[in-house]
């Protein structure tokens, strides 16, 4: 198992490096610069600014400096637009927020989704099943940017139960709506995958054998059916995680939660390349790391995979 | 039950498509005309779905927006099919060889990145526009179709009539195109429906954050974003585009599911 994890880590590192290089080159291939404003700057001033940010050096050297900074000091450089901020500072401020509601959303989506799916499969073709299938089918079509206004209309405006935005250091009333908005569609997908996977497993030979042995239903489900059922669910968790990361962009815009998503969009709109590059790398690193974790969990679940 | 969901899926996605097509010929009002006196009107006979904060007719904007959503998603799926399927077929024809390895490792690489984050990156770097949104979404459809095509094609290559075709002296690429492709077409159609619905969502997401079709072109995502500040003032401004997205995506999902039950012989009817 350990050698399997190490092997996967060895593949993850060049992938991450490639991501950094690709993003860097893409960013520098872009026309225009963050210092282009309505009024053209005098060339001397522009040259000074470019020298300050190291933009006057040849591109390979800039790339090298950036890579060295990221790898050795974990330093993503200064922001090009907010003159008094660094990319590290922005990450330090926003990432804990994103991580908090992201993790909660992820756990909620998995717990509710799996329970709903298992309940539906165990009571196939009863009203429980129909309700679960109907709910998950409709919820799957509810992206976060549609859920968010609906939640605000219901819980903030009509009922007045929850604040319509803000973070307030993660006090629970501020976390509820971002979590629901972010997790709904993923919860639905997980429920559907779990249901069909569980149905397939329950129809397989080894479950029939377990039934024939006279094992109680509870033991069959928990001891024998659960592990193979979770396999397709686990392989969906990678894409789900990625979707949630992306969704955080919308959540931060809608609920003013102050996570890195809003910084990301603003950096894209302001051409704040260093912030954008730094956050893309952070998102990419998280994705690669998470894919690694799911692969390891999958390997543990699936006896057919040899390490 | 199955038939009902397929019919509902067809009806909903057909309605979205019809709205987009009709919008070329006729609109209930000009979606670009501003009329401040009529702003934030609730639905009425004059404005079926009401008006937004600039007095634009929401029904007309939704119809014109359907055009953008569907066009972006359609071309993005086309890019995925056009490049991904040949790649997947070639990989399956050369299964286990270096070409196959190259295609599949390239796939893994693209899968390793958060697609919409990269899409935001692409549209930011090359400027926000519908065209760049199409490219950004389309690129991530390529590995999806390559993987599906390869996975479905692999077992087909071992069938007797494929061997017969090889004995008859047909080349691998010709066999792939003439015999393997028709075999895997049903799966590709199902996947295309799923990617189409994901494309609609991705386009709405991109234009929600301001990186899709640019104003004044109406788009569902931006309508939602603009309605954000007046949710309590006039909830219908936010609910209408939301509803349009939900119904279209729901329709496509139902359609995809129904088609899978119809077309995929390997799937057990649960």
- Taking all residues together, what is the mean pLDDT of chain B? 85
Please report the number of helical segments of chain A.
Answer: 11
Major sheet details of chain B: none
Share of helix among residues of chain B? over 70%
β-strand number of chain A: 0
Q: How far apart are the termini of chain A?
A: 6 Å
Helix amount of chain A: over 70%
Strand content of chain A: under 5%
Quick one: overall form of chain B?
elongated
| Outline of chain A | flat
Largest binding interface between chains: A-B, 50 and 46 residues
The counted number of beta strands of chain B is 0
Description:
The complex is a heterodimer of chains A (307) and B (270). With 307 residues, chain A is mainly α. Chain A is built from eleven helices and no strands. In chain A, helix 4 crosses helix 7, helix 4 packs parallel to helix 11 and helix 6 crosses helix 9. Chain A is flat and about 85 Å long. The model of chain A has no long low-confidence stretch (mean pLDDT 85). Chain B is elongated. With 270 residues, chain B is mostly helical. Chain B is built from nine helices and no strands. Chains A and B meet through helix 1, helix 5, helix 6, helix 7 and helix 9 of A and helix 4, helix 7, helix 8 and helix 9 of B.
């Amino acid at each position: 198992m350990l050698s399997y994890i190490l092997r996967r880590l060895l593949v993850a590192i060049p992938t991450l490096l490639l991501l950094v290089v690709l993003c860097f080159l893409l960013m520098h291939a872009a026309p225009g610069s963050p210092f282009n404003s309505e009024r053209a700057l005098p060339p001397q001033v522009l040259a000074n600014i470019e020298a300050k940010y190291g933009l006057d050096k040849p591109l390979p050297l800039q790339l090298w400096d950036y890579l060295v900074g990221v790898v050795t000091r974990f330093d993503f450089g200064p922001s090009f637009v907010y003159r008094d901020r660094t990319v590290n500072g922005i990450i330090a401020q926003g990432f804990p927020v994103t991580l908090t509601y992201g993790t909660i959303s992820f756990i909620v989506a998995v717990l509710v989704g799996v329970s709903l799916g298992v309940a539906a499969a165990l009571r196939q073709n009863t009203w429980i099943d129909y309700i679960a299938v109907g709910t998950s089918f409709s919820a799957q079509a509810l992206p976060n940017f549609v859920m968010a206004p609906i939640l605000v209309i219901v819980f903030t405006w009509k009922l007045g139960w929850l604040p319509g935005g803000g973070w307030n250091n993660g006090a629970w009333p501020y976390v509820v709506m971002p979590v629901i908005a972010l997790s709904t569609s993923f919860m639905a997908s997980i429920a559907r995958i779990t249901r069909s996977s569980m149905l397939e497993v329950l129809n397989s030979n080894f479950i029939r054998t377990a039934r024939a042995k006279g094992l109680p239903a509870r033991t069959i489900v928990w001891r024998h059916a659960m592990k193979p059922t979770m396999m397709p669910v686990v392989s969906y968790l990678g894409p789900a995680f990625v979707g949630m990361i992306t969704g955080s962009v919308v959540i931060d815009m809608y609920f003013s939660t102050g996570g890195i998503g809003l910084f990301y969009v603003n950096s894209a709109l302001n051409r704040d390349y260093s912030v954008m590059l730094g956050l893309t790398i952070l998102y990419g690193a998280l994705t690669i790391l998470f894919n690694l974790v799911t692969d390891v969990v999958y390997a543990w679940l699936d006896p057919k995979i040899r390490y | 039950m199955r038939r009902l969901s397929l019919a509902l899926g067809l009806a909903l996605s057909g309605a979205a498509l019809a709205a987009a097509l009709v919008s070329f010929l006729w609109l209930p009002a000009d979606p670009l005309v501003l009329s401040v006196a009529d702003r934030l009107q609730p639905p009425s006979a004059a404005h079926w779905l009401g008006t937004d904060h600039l007095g634009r007719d929401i029904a007309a904007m939704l119809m014109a927006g359907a055009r953008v959503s569907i066009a972006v998603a359609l071309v993005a799926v086309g890019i995925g099919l056009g490049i991904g399927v040949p790649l997947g077929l070639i990989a399956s024809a050369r299964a286990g060889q270096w070409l196959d390895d190259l295609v599949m490792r390239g796939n893994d690489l693209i899968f390793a990145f958060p697609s919409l984050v990269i899409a935001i990156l692409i549209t930011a770097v090359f400027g926000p526009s519908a065209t760049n949104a199409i490219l950004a979404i389309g690129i991530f459809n390529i590995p999806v179709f390559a993987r599906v095509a390869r996975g479905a094609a692999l077992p087909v290559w071992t069938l007797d009539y494929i061997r017969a075709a090889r004995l008859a002296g047909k080349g691998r690429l010709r066999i792939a195109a003439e015999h393997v492709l028709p075999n895997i077409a049903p799966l590709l159609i199902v996947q295309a429906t799923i990617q189409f619905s994901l494309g609609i969502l991705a386009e709405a997401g991109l234009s929600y954050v301001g990186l899709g079709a640019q104003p004044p072109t109406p788009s569902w995502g931006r309508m939602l974003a603009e309605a954000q500040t007046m949710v309590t003032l006039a909830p219908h401004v936010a609910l209408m585009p939301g509803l349009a997205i939900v119904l279209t995506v729901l329709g496509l999902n139902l359609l995809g599911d129904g088609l899978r039950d119809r077309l995929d012989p390997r799937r057990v009817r649960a």
